[in-house]
Amino acid sequence: MNTVQLECFMEVCTCLNFSRAAENLRMTQPAVSHQINSLEAELGTKLFNRTSKSVELTRDGIRFMGPASDALKILRNAKARISEKSVSEVLPLGVTCRDIQMCGVLPRVLRRIAEELPLCRPVVKIAPFMPVNVLTENEMVDVIFSYKADTPTHNRILYKELKKCPVCCVCSKNSELAKYDSLKIADLQGKSIALISRQRDIPEIYKVVTATSAVLKQSQIYLCDNYECAKPLVQAGLCFCVQPDLPMKKEESLKYIPITDSSPVSFGVYYSTLKANPVLKRFIEITRSMLGGKENL
Questions:
Q1: Within the chain, how many helices (H) and strands (E) appear?
Q2: Residue 46, domain member (yes or no)
Q3: 174 lies in which domain range?
Q4: Contact 14, 127 (CB under 8 A)
Q5: Residue 125: helix, strand or coil by DSSP?
Q6: How far is CA 118 from CA 121, 176, 290, in A?
Q7: Are 198 and 244 in contact (CB under 8 A)?
Q8: pTM beyond cutoff 0.70
Q9: Secondary structure letter of residue 166 according to DSSP
């Protein structure tokens, strides 16, 4: 077992995508697959269930995440001592977002962090399916931006709400819906819709799209993996989609119309204990302040 195998394993755990993991590690996909295969052979068990469309951790894969992360920490610390490089020269901060839209809230916050803490070096990643428990197992992940899901099973993981985001209809400015400044769920019935698979875990969104799509013909439904896939369809005027109204710069070609009879979505961050991480604590304070919440934790 070697460092490369462990790094490949942890990166695939983060991305759940071999090609993206290879890109992040600056390796080829076959090389990453070879490292995972050799690690599985050495351990005598499968760590991932792989198909042409998805990658999932097995039960043994989940169990191995903690030991793999610990082993990497030990190896990295040993390397740092041998090379006599000071780890205090910079202040690392691992920031993960569930999707690319959430990254849109970061520029203002990171600019403020850079002004206050010039030695801070944020590392931003997008990982739609990263389990929140990784916060206690992976030193490279300090905070996960996410819509609120079920309460984490680990009592060291906390959720801090940043903002209640209204649910809105996103449509082209040329759409017949664009003439409205507000809508009700009933107003959307009969209109073509883009169903985004990753929204199934957001109850407030799921309620709206279920009510609006239940009576539609198959030809009126566009199936999309994420908002980035749905956006070109919406911009073309083929359909609308439903999104939480995040506090970020909006697309000029689209109109965002609040759906008044839907419940807002809780947007916030998952993080582990702040006691030993003043940089993370200040990062969350600034984020809450800039998004309209209270600054002090």
A1: 9, 12
A2: yes
A3: 167-263
A4: yes
A5: strand
A6: 8, 48, 19
A7: no
A8: no
A9: P
